[in-house]
Design goal:
Helix content: 55-70%
Distance between the termini: 62 Å
Mean pLDDT: 97
CATH class of one domain: Mainly Alpha
Strand content: under 5%
Bound molecules: N-hydroxyamidocarboxymethyldethia coenzyme *A
Length: about 450
Amino acid sequence: MDPLKHKFKEKAAALFAEMKNLLKQHGNLKVDEVTLDQVYGGARGIKMMIWETSALDAMEGIRFRGYSIPELSEKLPTINNSKEPVPEGLFWLMMTDEIPTAEDITWLSEDWKRRANVPSQTFKVLDALPKDTHPMIQFSIAINAMQSDSVFAQRYSEGMSKSEYWDATYEDAMNLIARLPRVAAYIYRRSFKNNSHIVPDNALDWAANYAHMLGYDDEDFLNLMRLYTTIHADHEGGNASAHTAYLVNSTLSDPYLSYAGAMNSLSGPLHGLANQEVIKWIFEMVDELGITNPSKDQIAEYVKKTLSEGKVVPGYGHAVLRRPDPRFIAQKVFAERYIQQDDIVEIVWKVFDVVPPILESLGKVKNPWPNVDAHSGALLVHYGMKEYDYYTVLFGVSRALGVMAALCWTRALGIPLERPKSVTTTWIKQWLAKQSVIS
Ligand code: HAX
């Protein structure tokens, strides 16, 4: 058994026993109450699922196994002289709740290379699609196309015991993560670079190799991809893409089917597609104003125009966060460190000054601050990647790390089929009538 699987097995067995004991002793205690606002309002804040790999605090932002992003930069080991944390380290941490050694992540990086061979029909399926198919649709289809290789589906059809589900999920999770950069880079080169594909460089770590296959070998860009794929990896379990994967997987659909579902969810403009919307919005602003360095007053006018047209300001607001997203701040720090002067980056920083008071003045926006998507596009444009239709695929490659680690945990804990209760408005009215009878 490989070292990560071995460690995971031990940890999972211990948590499984602890969970059983907790449920036996306290299973009837109330964790939460639900208001009518929450029933109609997208279930905001209701505690109703287990997600072991990270937790989100409204004020502090994301913590991966208790560590903030700045703490991770200090504590996670690096490989290949990287100046930023590498996602291999984060994946190990999410799987085991332990900071890995340099040896651990070197092993993991090598293991993903061994598993990176993409089933050949995947490329054939992609080649059959019109070239202008949105990259996220190509990505979702490619993940479904790889499902024929699912260890979980194969072993289930052979009568696998329930106690082995986590093991088969682990194999699919590791294979899927290993393969995604190749598939995602293929989509980019197919859509935007005349189908001229770049072979992997096996001397590189996972994120750097992805950057290389995309066609960007600048050392700073490799570091950006390491940072990018680390900070986008997980955002607790309630976000739409993670929750979709969790729901689909709870039916014992395998990790490929679960992750394709997650990617369809990430493709919405209120979620992952916001990263393309942000840069599209900035490009349109620059076009309309006819200058590349608008003043804050000009930006404020453009923001007000966007709102007056009944649109949202992309990259701002969040369903949980109530402060600037630490993932936004991490990218700002990266830009301050690596980028001297860049008009689009400057615009992102001016937007950061201008938008929050305007959104606050509307009186209804719960979080006027930037989220992760407000900054990422400007960094990519700086290094020459201007094809913003592709940006959500980068997010999708990264998100696999958190979602796959979490699915290993849910299968190891034997979490059952998810099946919440829905009600009709007629039921609500009858329920309300009973409340007033009682009060
Ligand atoms: N611009 C304009 N209006 C906004 C807004 C924004 N950026 N953010 C919220 N609002 C509005 C909502 O549309 C809502 O208006 P109505 O009552 O008229 O419907 C009102 O303010 C209250 O919304 P909220 O409670 O503050 O926010 P929600 O939890 O409902 O929604 C969203 C959270 C992220 C969907 C929302 O802030 C938004 O649409 N933001 C812009 C899109 C975006 O950046 N999405 C990416 C989010 C992060 C992420 O998932 N990345 O992948």
